[in-house]
Amino acid sequence: MVNQEFWQSKRVLVTGGHGFLGSHLVDRLSQTGCEIITPKHSEYDLTKEDEVKRLFTDNSSIDIMIHMAVDGGGIGYLKERPGSSFYNNAMMALLLQEQSRLNNVLKFVGVGSVCAYPKFTPVPFREKDLWNGYPEETNAPYGLAKKMMMVQSQGYKDQYGFNAIHLMPVNLYGPRDDFDLKSSHVIPALIRKMLAAKKDGLPYVEVWGTGKASREFLYVEDCADAIILAAEKYNGREPVNLGSGLEMSMKDIITKIKTLTGFNGEIRWDTNKPDGQPRRGLDVSKAEKDFGFRATTGLDEGLKKTIDWYLSANDN
User: Fold this and answer.
1) Which alpha helices (H) appear in the chain, and where do they start and end?
2) How many Å apart are CA 178 and CA 279, to the nearest integer?
3) Using CA atoms, how far apart are residues 201 and 300, in angstroms rounded to an integer?
4) In what order do the strands lie in the sheet with 171-173?
5) CB-based contact 79:92 (threshold 8 Å)
6) What superfamily in CATH does domain 4-173+218-245+280-297 come from?
7) Residue 121: is its pLDDT beyond 60?
8) What are phi and psi of 65, to 5 degrees?
9) In the chain, which end has fewer C-beta atoms inside a 10 angstrom radius, N or C?
10) Which one, of 56, 44, 153, lies nearest residue 108 by Cα?
């Protein structure tokens, strides 16, 4: 339950507020009575110090900064852009957090990524396991850049008393996701492929990997709710997982998408392509204990909403 009194009269700056997760967060925040500022990439390049300084000059007296702007995508996108994704994500976090501190922002909410976890983290991933190994190779530059944002938050809290928190969402999905096959994550890519194959009468859809890897997914509106609750109630030093607590094999997830899209053809596995991290499932008990978040949208319900939105948006 959102605390309206907490948000009223606050000025909240949301980076990435026009993106997938950000747009849902802004929708939720717009119901709280706070003033929301959502800078666009075309207005400010957040990887450049002068531009970030100008952002704060143009928008003074920020109470809460929620940083969600990201240079990222699926395995294919990150594999092709390891250098730029590391640099851009690291620079945005460094500059925004430093300027937030210098401009007396009351709270910095950093939204990181489950990609920061080591490749072979025991399931369920617990926050204390974050430093027990190196991330999966295709995700490592992106995941480590996000991890450095957490290190910066902890250092600033320890040295300056700056109120910064770090959240780590698992893989997200839902309406308004990126369905571009060059940059999309697995769920929107599969939805688009299967609906196109069904429409065109194609006999099969090709899928990366073996299907043996497991994943956990969180519906985007649930994640937006979690961020709002954490901004209200959590002021701890340690990072916090945001997830649904449900781990499934990619084969089972793909079977669900196939059923819900009505695609009756064959699934062909391209085993020359990477699976990514072997297993991914979170311990979500800290989020429930520390700020009362628990996911409420089941995978079948969330997938159906996502498919319906895509069909509506593309008039298929």
Assistant:
1) 4-7, 20-29, 49-58, 75-80, 82-102, 140-160, 186-200, 220-233, 250-261, 285-291, 299-314
2) 23
3) 25
4) 171-173, 214-219, 247-249
5) no
6) NAD(P)-binding Rossmann-like Domain (3.40.50.720)
7) yes
8) -105, 125
9) N
10) 153
Could you tell me which of 249, 244, 274 has the C-alpha nearest to residue 136? 274
Task: Dig out the tokens for 196 from the structure.
Answer: 């196109």
- Phi/psi at 126 (5° precision): -110, 145
Asked if 293 and 250 count as a contact pair (C-beta separation under 8 A), the reply is no
Whether the CA torsion 288, 292, 296, 299 is positive or negative: it is negative
Q: Note the pTM of the prediction, 2 decimals.
A: 0.94
Q: Residue holding tokens 């859809």?
A: 205
Q: Label the pairing between strands 107-111 and 64-67.
A: parallel
Q: Tell me the catalytic residues.
A: 142
The residue with tokens 């084969």 is 251
